[in-house]
Design a protein that fits this description.
Chain B: Belongs to the ABC transporter superfamily. The complex is a heterodimer of chains A (about 290) and B (about 270). By secondary structure, chain A is mostly helical. Chain A has eleven helices and no strands. In chain A, α4 runs antiparallel to α9, α9 runs parallel beside α10 and α10 packs antiparallel against α11. Chain B has one domain: P-loop containing nucleotide triphosphate hydrolases (Rossmann fold, 3-Layer(aba) Sandwich), CATH 3.40.50. The radius of gyration of chain B is 18 Å and the shape is globular. The chains are: A mainly alpha (about 290), B alpha/beta (about 270). Bound molecules: adenosine-5'-triphosphate and magnesium ion (MG).
């Protein structure tokens, strides 16, 4: 009995000769598996959905002016590459410039709000009114008053993206721990030091959350505004391509433009998420991977 | 270690007064009188404890001394200046929570007071490392606060308070949230730092045992309104090591301070 026990344990003890190395290897394997999963699973899911779509269209012989197959949409993307890219570039420009202006304006005004209660109380109603009025309802007015279409569209997209940045920056700058504030007072921090080393880092998680939202909203604002302006002619964004294709019953082209709009949205989402991780990943709870 | 511990002793009776509280009072905007008519002279090199029930104004008194709260009536001078007006390295403050910046490494957290003075990182390295070494955290300078245990965070906080080599160290229930083993260890660490750097320490606590173990004078405070009810002198027992906890003198001191604290509780309605 006793001999058989030793016989059994011998190889086990061998396998765990270096428990630390064993553990490290296991942790690393788990991490690699997790990374692979995070890329592979969504890609596989998307590809199967496309395959299913292709199959159903083919199997049911759905006509392409109702629902085009993914392969036809891809083909349209290639044949209309020139016009679609011009439109895409227009929408990208519109979205990014409006987002940039929203960041500049939102952060500047948010800082002002955080500095002065009076300013906040006086100006906040305007910000709320801008936010709660649907952009689609104001857009026609803006298009009448602003003659340059790009500027008019820019204003619409900016209105939508601006508010989350403003409100989160203001809240974030106020969110600094009060004991840390006392500490900065104790060491006689200058206003600049306080801003740089306390308020900005405290506000950063709030700002990043706002940026993720505003990125998507800027695109929505750009597309919606262009839909409203659509009849005004000369503008050439992706939304106009969708409208135009719908008038001409070119459904595959419509899907192709739609695909590019989604792609743009996904890229913006990934970019802001990546940025957030890069900036907050080393310390903030929202971006730290929890140990299981 | 032993030689440093033996340097512990209560300051001489005629040591110069560092902090003078002269009828100091604090009334908050909502009408609460947090501290009423507090008179106290704290001499250089003292280790003094503020002991009292919750809400008796211990933190308020400490913050007034640090210049973080205005004084409603009376006067406080620190080193001859009104609070917060002396040289900045005069005071180190340890909050009840570790109060570290979660986005900064241990090194950068401890570096903060020097950075506020306009010092460049590369010149501050020695001082920061020395402060970290004094609390036994040299090997953690690159870690982030979330990677530390509660007791380690508290020690970072103490290192930060010491990095400017202050003469005065104010500690607001620094170890209240820690387990007893860690607390005893940090108690010894603080006593050792006090002796080694010749600090004056004001230590706020709820614990009779902690106040008796650490201080040469216990200021017992009563609530509603917050005020000093008794001051108990405890000049003996040095050097205070774990052995001191087992002596009859320590037991007797605990009994005296407990009795003084109980007196203050007599006229307190608990559910305030
Ligand atoms: N900012 C404030 N505004 C109004 N009242 C306050 C404020 N801070 C403290 N107080 C009141 O002052 C009194 C003393 O508070 P303080 O924080 O000094 O008590 P404490 O002795 O430190 O208590 P604890 O041991 O619980 O920390 C309490 O009654 C409290 O309610
Ligand atoms: Mg307190």
């Amino acid at each position: 009995m006793s001999t058989s026990t030793t016989d059994l344990t011998a190889p086990v003890a061998d396998a765990f000769e270096d428990p630390a190395a064993e553990m490290n290897a296991a942790v690393e394997r788990a991490a690699r598996r997790e990374r692979r999963m995070r890329v592979l699973m969504p890609v596989a899911a998307l590809l199967s959905a496309l395959a299913l779509w292709e199959f159903l269209v083919w199997y049911n012989e759905v006509p392409h002016y109702l629902i085009p197959a993914p392969s036809l949409i891809a083909q349209t993307l290639v044949t209309d590459f020139g016009t679609l890219m011009t439109s895409m570039w227009f929408t990208v420009k519109l979205t990014l410039v409006s987002l940039l202006l929203a960041i500049v304006g939102g952060v500047a005004l948010g800082m002002l709000f955080a500095l002065s209660r009076t300013v906040e109380v006086s100006l906040f109603p305007f910000a709320v009114i801008l936010q709660v009025t649907p952009v689609i309802a104001i857009a026609p007015l803006i298009l009448i008053y602003v003659h340059d279409t790009f500027s008019a569209l820019l204003i619409c997209a900016w209105i939508v993206a601006f508010f989350p940045i403003l409100s989160n920056t203001a809240i974030g700058l106020r969110s600094a721990d009060h004991n840390l504030r006392d500490l900065f007072t104790l060491y006689r921090a200058t206003p600049w030091q306080r801003l740089r080393y306390l308020l900005v880092p405290s506000a950063l998680p709030y700002f990043m959350a706002a940026l993720k939202i505003a990125g998507g909203l800027a695109l929505i604002g750009a597309v919606v505004a262009e839909f409203v302006a659509g009849t005004a002619g000369q503008n050439t964004g992706l939304a106009s391509r969708i409208l135009e294709s719908s008038f001409r019953q070119e459904i595959p082209r419509m899907f192709a433009a739609l695909f590019l709009v989604s792609l743009l949205g996904v890229v913006i989402f990934l970019a802001t998420s990546f940025l957030s991780k890069a900036v907050l990943g080393h310390w903030h709870e929202s971006e730290i991977k929890r140990e299981a | 270690m032993v030689s440093e511990a033996t340097a512990q002793k209560a300051p001489a009776e005629d040591a110069p007064v560092l902090i003078r509280m002269d009828g100091a009072s604090k009334q908050f905007a909502n009408g609460t009188v947090a501290v009423r008519d507090m008179n106290l002279d704290i001499r250089e090199g003292e280790f003094i404890s503020f002991l009292g029930p919750s809400g008796c104004g211990k933190s308020t008194a400490l913050k007034m001394i640090a210049g973080l709260l205005s004084i409603s009536a009376g006067e406080i001078t620190v080193n001859g200046h009104p609070p917060g007006k002396g040289r900045e390295q005069d005071i180190g403050f340890v909050f009840q929570e570790a109060t570290l910046m979660p986005w900064a490494t241990v090194f950068d957290n401890v570096f903060l007071p020097l950075r506020m003075k306009g010092m460049k990182k590369k010149y501050a390295r020695d001082e920061v490392e020395e402060a970290l070494a004094s609390v036994g955290l040299s090997s953690f300078s690159g870690a982030y606060p979330r990677q530390l245990s509660g007791g380690m965070k508290m020690r970072v906080s103490i290192a930060r308070a010491l990095v400017t080599k202050p003469k005065l160290l104010l500690m607001d229930e620094p170890f209240a949230a820690l387990d007893e083993i860690t607390r005893f260890k940090l108690n010894n660490d603080v006593l050792e730092l006090w002796a080694r750097h010749g600090l004056t320490v004001i230590f706020v606590t709820h614990s009779v045992f902690e106040s008796v173990y650490l201080s040469n004078r216990v200021v017992v405070m009563a609530a509603r309104p917050g005020r000093v009810s008794r001051v108990v002198d405890l000049p003996g027992g040095y050097p205070r090591t774990e052995h001191y906890r087992t002596t009859p003198e320590y037991a007797e001191n605990c009994r005296i301070v407990s009795a003084a604290l109980e007196e203050t509780m007599d006229n307190v309605d608990i559910d305030h």
